[in-house]
Design a protein that fits this description.
With 347 residues, this protein is of the alpha/beta class. It has 2 domains: 2-121 and 225-346, 3-Layer(aba) Sandwich (D-Maltodextrin-Binding Protein, domain 2), CATH 3.40.190.10; 126-223, 3-Layer(aba) Sandwich (D-Maltodextrin-Binding Protein, domain 2), CATH 3.40.190.10. The chain has helices at residues 2-15, 35-38, 54-60, 63-68, 80-89, 100-108, 154-166, 180-189, 201-207, 233-238, 240-259, 261-272, 276-283, 291-294, 311-326, and strands at residues 43-48, 72-77, 94-98, 113-122, 126-131, 146-149, 174-177, 194-198, 210-215, 226-232, 286-288. Helix 7 (154-166) links the parallel strand 6 and strand 7 (174-177). It is globular. 52% of the residues are buried.
Length: 347
C-alpha cells in the first residue's frame, strides 16, 4: 500500500509537468524552444505510466520542456482508451505509451493520427498472468474464469490471439474491463482470477500470487506488441519543427538510458514508483528503439514510400484485421497501414 501511495504522488507531480529528477550533471539545460513552437501555442503531450521505459525519462528529466520550451504541457492517462477523447478532440497533438488497438480505434473514427516514434517492442514485460490458486494451467483453462483486461487495448488483441491458437472461444471467458490500476486492485481483492496486462501492473501480479501463463515473447511476429507515440497528422504537418522536437525529446530519453544506465534506472524507478531492481527487470523485457532506429525497415520504414512495409505498419494492419474479425472494430481494415506511419520527423 505504501508503494501504491508513492506511485500516486509521483505521477501526479509528473502530470503537472514537475520533473522528479533534474540531472544537471548530464547536460540538462534551460528550455530553448524551437522557433516553430513559439507560434504553436501550448503543446499538450499525453503519456502513460508503463513502468520503466525511456519515455518516462524524457518526462522526469524535462526533455520535452528542453526541446519544446515551457509551453509543453504533460498529461498522464491511465490507459490508451482513456486518451481517445482528448485525441479525438484535437486537444492532444501528441500521445506516448499507446498500444496499437487504441490508435486503430481512433483512426477508424476519423482521428488523423500517425505513428511518429516507435518506443519499444514488448518481449517479457507484458502477458497473461493467472493466480496460482486458480488452478488454471493452460489457455483452455480460462473457460468460465474471470479475466481482467483493458478492453480496446493491446491486451484485447493478445487475448484473442492466445485464444485462437488454443481453440478457446472467448465467449466462454468472463471478461472484466478495467484500467491497469483497477486491475491491480481487482487482483488483490479476488475479483479476477487472471489478467492480461503490461508493466508495472504485470510485475505486481507476478509477485503477488501470480504465475506467467504466456508473455509477449510467445506471440507470433504478426501480433508483435509495441509501445508507440502518435502525432495528430494535421498539427504535425502544420508544425513539423515541433514534431521533430517531440521526437528529439524521446530520443534524449533513450540516449540517457544508453549513456548513463545506472542513473537512468534510478530516474525510471522514482518516476514509475517502482524499485531499481524492478526497473532493471522491466527494461530487460523490451527491445528499445532509438531515433536512428525509427527510419529503418524494421521500425517505421526508410521513407514515406516504404513505411507500409515497415514492422510498425505491418503490426498495425494485423492488429486491425484481428480486431475487425472479432467485431471490436467495425471499420474494415485498409489495404495498407502506410499512411498511418510517418518516419520523416525522426530524420
Amino acid at each position: 500500500m505504501l508503494k501504491r501511495r508513492k506511485f500516486v504522488r509521483v505521477v501526479s507531480a509528473l502530470a503537472l509537468g514537475a520533473g522528479v529528477v533534474t540531472p544537471v550533471a548530464y547536460g540538462l539545460v534551460a528550455a530553448t524552444p524551437v522557433a516553430a513552437s513559439v507560434n504553436a501555442g501550448p503543446i499538450a503531450i499525453g503519456y502513460e505510466n508503463n513502468g520503466a521505459d525511456p519515455s518516462i525519462i524524457s518526462v522526469a528529466n524535462r526533455y520535452f520542456e528542453k526541446e519544446l520550451g515551457h509551453d509543453a504541457r504533460l498529461k498522464l492517462f491511465s490507459s490508451g482508451p482513456a486518451a481517445l477523447t482528448s485525441l479525438a478532440s484535437g486537444q492532444l497533438p501528441f500521445m506516448c505509451g499507446l498500444g496499437m488497438p487504441p490508435v486503430i480505434a481512433a483512426i477508424a473514427q476519423g482521428v488523423p493520427l500517425q505513428v511518429v516514434f516507435n518506443q519499444e517492442r514488448y518481449t517479457k514485460d507484458a502477458g497473461l498472468v493467472v493466480k496460482k490458486s486458480s488452478g488454471i494451467t493452460s489457455i483452455a483453462g480460462l473457460a468460465g474464469k474471470s479475466v481482467g483486461l483493458v478492453i480496446g487495448s493491446q491486451s484485447s488483441f493478445e487475448l484473442a490471439t492466445y485464444a485462437r491458437k488454443a481453440g478457446l472461444k472467448l465467449s466462454s471467458v468472463r471478461l472484466v474491463n478495467l484500467t491497469p490500476p483497477e486491475l491491480q486492485s481487482a487482483w488483490s481483492t479476488g475479483r479476477i482470477e487472471a489478467a492480461i496486462v503490461w508493466d508495472p501492473v504485470y510485475d505486481f501480479l507476478v509477485t503477488h500470487g501470480g504465475r506467467i501463463l504466456m508473455n509477449d515473447s510467445t506471440l507470433p511476429v504478426t501480433a508483435t506488441s509495441f509501445n508507440i507515440c502518435v502525432a495528430n497528422k494535421s498539427f504535425a504537418a502544420k508544425h513539423p519543427a515541433v514534431a521533430k522536437a517531440f521526437v528529439k525529446a524521446l530520443g534524449d530519453g533513450v540516449s540517457f538510458l544508453q549513456n548513463h544506465r545506472a542513473a537512468a534506472m534510478r530516474v525510471m524507478a522514482e518516476a514509475a514508483g517502482i524499485s531499481v531492481a524492478t526497473a532493471k527487470l522491466e527494461i530487460a523485457g523490451y527491445q528499445i528503439f532509438s531515433v536512428a532506429d525509427q527510419s529503418t525497415a524494421a521500425v517505421l520504414g526508410t521513407s514515406s514510400a516504404t513505411s507500409a512495409k515497415s514492422g510498425t505498419a505491418q503490426s498495425l494492419l494485423n492488429n486491425w484485421k484481428a480486431l475487425y474479425a472479432a467485431g471490436t472494430i467495425t471499420t474494415k481494415p485498409p489495404k495498407s497501414a502506410g499512411p498511418f506511419v510517418n518516419p520523416s520527423y525522426a530524420k
